[in-house]
Amino acid sequence: MKITKGIPNMVTLANLYCGFLSIGFAADGQYNNAAILILIGMMLDSMDGRLARMLNADSTFGKELDSLADIVTFGVAPSFLVYYTYFFQFGLLGFAVAGLFPLFGAYRLARFNVTPPKSSMSHFTGVPITAAGGILALLTLFGNTMPEIITTVIFTALCFLMVSRIKIPSLKDVPLPKYGTIITIFLGCLLIVIYRGSYTQFPYLIYIATPLYIAFLAYRFVQGKKRKKLERENS
Q1: Strand, helix or coil at 99?
Q2: What domains, with CATH codes, occur in the chain?
Q3: What Cα–Cα distance (Å) separates residue 54 from each residue in 5, 8, 67, 158, 223?
Q4: What is the pLDDT of residues 56-85, one digit of tens each?
Q5: Which end of the chain is more exposed for a tag (fewer CB within 10 A), N or C?
Q6: Is 225 left (phi over 0), alpha (psi -120 to 50) or beta?
Q7: What is the DSSP letter of 87?
């Protein structure tokens, strides 16, 4: 039982490790790999909370660990990626500007952590750092097809949107299979299209992360069907 209680935290640590690997790939000039690892981190981040609820393993420790992982994978890693691909040409100024992203992200996470749980079920206040980091990763993947000024504008906008008071609809109450499957198929097709092209190296963690994520969604789908069937029988 103790082992199953630790599974969500292991998934969170895997998310954190993806962020570390992404920084390493970015420093080595393998920008596509770095971006893909951030997207893998998004998959893992979407799993740990739901696994915790499924296994009745919710804990304050897990929530704090999740925030620490998020600031690395979706804050620090994307900022390094954007610096190495776009802001490096501005020298020290570009490095300083890129460093603003994790600062805004950390502020947003801290604010979220002290927000009463019930008030964050229907909406998010400000853009979640997970979404912001994922957007920067996608921009890097398609960076060759758009002017650099667009990336700069989006980067700046995301920084301020994370700490804004804008209400962003939450999908926490939306059944996972309906939207999770669509997201998984989209990400899977995107990764295949990109890497069936001209890129030669590939973070092999994707071969583990994607099947596990699909299996997780399939399990959630089956459990959802069983729960609805029991509700109909009991009503």
Answers
A1: coil
A2: 2-174 (1.20.120.1760)
A3: 10, 10, 20, 32, 10
A4: 777 888 888 988 999 999 999 999 999 998
A5: C
A6: alpha
A7: G
